[in-house]
Task: structure prediction
Amino acid sequence: MSYAKFLVKRILQGVFVVWGVVTVTFALRAAAPGDPVNLIVDPGASPELREQIRREVGLDQPLYVQYLEYLQGLVVGDLGFSYQSRRDVSIMIAERLPATLELAIAATIVAVVIAIPLGVVSATRRHEPADYGATLFSLVGISTPNFWLGIMLILVLSVQIGLFPVSGRPVSFTDAVVSLVTTGYAHDLVTWLRHIALPAITLGTYFTALITRLTRSGMLDELGKPYVTATEAKGLPGVLIRYKHVLRNTMIPIVTVLGLQLGTLIGGAVITEAVFNWPGLGSRLISAIYAVDWPLIQGIIIVIGVGFVCINILVDSIYAYLNPRVTDE
Amino acid sequence: MSESTEALLRVEGLSTRFFTEQGQVNAVSDLDLRIDRGDVYGIVGESGSGKSVTARSIMDLIESPGEITSGEIWYRNGELAAAVEDDHGHAVDGSFVDLLEIPERVRRSLRGTSFSMIFQDPESSFNPSLTVGEQLAEAVEVQRRASANPRSTRARTRSEEYSLGSFVLSTMLPSKRYVSEESRERAISLLELVGIPDPVERADEYPHEYSGGMLQRAMIAQALAGEPDLLIADEPTTALDVTIQAQILDLLDELKRETGMTILLITHNLGVIARMCDRVGVMYAGEIVERGTLADVFDDHVHPYTHGLLGSIPDVERAGGRLEPIPGNVPSLLDREMGDRCRFADRCPKAMEDCLSHPPEVDAEGSDHHAVRCVLAERSYDESRALPDDYFGEPDRPAEAVDEPQSDDEPLPAERTQPTLEDAGGDGS
Amino acid sequence: MISDRLKANLKREFDRSLMAKLGLAIAIVILLLATFAPILATHNPTTTGQFDEHGNSYPPWGVTHETHTWEDGDDGRERISYTAEPSPDHYLGTNNIGQDVFSRLLYGARTSLLVGLIGTGLAAAVGVPFGLISGYYGGRIDDSMMRIADVMLAFPSLVLAIALIGVFGRSEQFIPDPIVMAGFADGMPEYAVLPGTVTLVVALVNWVWFARVARGEAMSVRSEEYVKAARSLGANNRTILVKHVLPNSLTPIIVLATIQVAAIILLESALSYLGFSGTTLSWGYEIQQGQDYLATAWWIATVPGIGIVLAVISINLLGDWLRDSLDPNIGGEGGV
Result:
């Protein structure tokens, strides 16, 4: 199978999954108890007003019509209107998306930059203090709920020492960069860094621990293989053996597991945002749930599902790149 | 047969042990070996006799829990001797250098450029996710970098290792890649040298796209990349089909004649030995029990083990020629289970009371190089002093004592666990 | 099902792994603490208002800290600094509304373990048959079932759980506490509270992992000789599934179940932290309460978090032990 064909197949599967997500969320919304009109207007409003609203929102239509209309809107990016704020759901999502992406990317960078060298050191210096330290760290890391970790970081680094702010995101990354470029002062960027530091560590710790663990055990498996001895025998420098050969092959299973764990990253972002009042999609989702604002809930979940599918396709392409045998099957 | 008598490598008293959970395993004990420049030296023995461990000890590929516990490996290399003389005078004797007395880093720098190795199973000895060409080019690059500096040997003994920083840089800047373009081209010409058709296309293919025989050719090409002084071939044909085996041996033969390189050939196959080698060492239970020229070992052998091994080659001329395996099993190499007797005594048809003490290596008749570790070299078999048949208990007792290593990370020589005599001979000739 | 070789492996791994011993020890302690919470608790965990004479929370034993209070003085309200002293009665102090932190820690363990164990059981009960059928029959049944699983996996478990709770609403089930009923612990709550929706939802979110593992096992067992033999002898598919395929798939399912208990405990704590649980006797809820008092009463949020970490670590250690002994291939690990 060629690479292009492989990719097309994955994309078609992805489209199917997105359709499934849309359908499930639609079903959840339909199954939710209570009359949605009560969520839009005061329950005591006149029957005429209620009927009018019902018609305007399209709730008077049969369910399948509502479903088809929703799908139709989705194709052009129309996710309907929020019950609570009457605003366009796609806009409400778009304005919160950058904050969540900043957080997720920062956490991933933290995780990858720390975890991979840590895992390599741990595997190559087995049974030395560095290995025990890394193993203990990864055990505690995967066992600690991230919201509690965040609170402990706030307790120690913000409340006690005052090193980092407790919460919030006063400036976005793009604004901070623009300000750096136009004024030449890094002040905004430093503010951004100070605010994202704790949330990124909070969200990234589980992944740092997980990747360290996977890297260590994967490296140990891989280091026992005959090709490693053969590579040593040809005199290749140790760094190249460890990173170019062994780590590369270790990355193949790691990438797969990370693809599966993507949901954990997104779920973790939701709760991290709640801890740090980070104005992203996650905190918007939670307030939407409290307000039973179904169009908004539905929209956010669909966007998350699309993101999940896209990243998984990306992961699969990386996988195919790393492992030349995949596309040959 | 080569007329040269200049030694390239002298191994003296080499012992390599593995410290496992079950106890100390004496994989190689007190081993002497001399390989002359331009020769093909064969080491033959059953599985678990310590052949591969010997090769790996020379290559410095013994990993924890294994360790070279004593011995000297003298390697003739005038340039290296001059380079390390100042700092490690005790490791230098004329143009010989004792590899066990020089720093690890220097020793590693000899891999690929002084010694290289062909492994048994080509399919698992290549990294599955890099192209064959890339892997060959790496081996070329090691050599290219080593010789790029005019004061290379001296520089290598001091220089910094390739650092993590350089690697990270190389992933971002193509110009900083470890493997240079000229190494890639040289890799392609090496593929051509070993008879791989369409080398330009094949260089871009991955190991799984090669057949076993082709891959073994590629491995030979890789081993030649550094123009090594000594090529170690560890069971180079065992994993291959019979017809392919012959082709690979032809290739090795041809390359040897063209380049005059020295080869240490490790095999359990006496046919291969007879065909390729100038000198032979017969290994049993971690020791060389008999060594000498091909004629010494094949025609004038003294040790009953050598005799048994040769007897187990099917005789094609005798009708219905049958394999005659040596009764009994490879003995345990666990230190605590090894007595002080001759290690072959329990299987030896000519075991005598003298065999209850460990025999030293003595010269035997034949060429100057013929040496044997057996009392029969100095006295003839005396039936009156023979040990009773049941002296060592039931001879066919399975070798339970040496179980498979329990821990997941101990690269114990797996062959050690195999209790039976392999099919010795049968092909290749 | 559990062969002698397997038992020997378990024992050998246990003997040589300090971590396995530690994990088992912590897990047993937590299990005992949770089971006998009504007896071991020093106070009714719901009793409020246990403050010091200045109306502030007691700190844990060994902790004193500088705090202040307002009192009516000669010229109006006056700020008085004083040192808050721990009470001999409250081992781990009291929380913001004056409840005993130690007693709530024990009762919180009950909630976590109940949800973890029942949730895992439910998830396995749904996922294992689904996966076995999918893997055993293969073909179109397998394809469609796996597409469903793909869709499920596209929902982050926390997000799906929140959405499902949005649909079902919060709920709590009251289970009579046998220890209190038998009269061993007077003054303790008569009912144990199980957050029903949360339990159901964590199972609905996590069954896919069981389905994946069971499917993989069924697929590999399907082609084994003895299954083919049983089929040729005329055994029907249901019998083969229950008698042959299931027992042989059990090992990896047990390992997965262990990991899932940890994952579900983490998920439950996250849900109750966000306020979606049905009970307040939960570690996550307690942490959320304590977050506002970090500057004045740090122990409220700290103590239950340590409880979660210890519980999850011990289960993960047990999982590692099982995995090292049984060595099945399990791809995914659930998490928050």
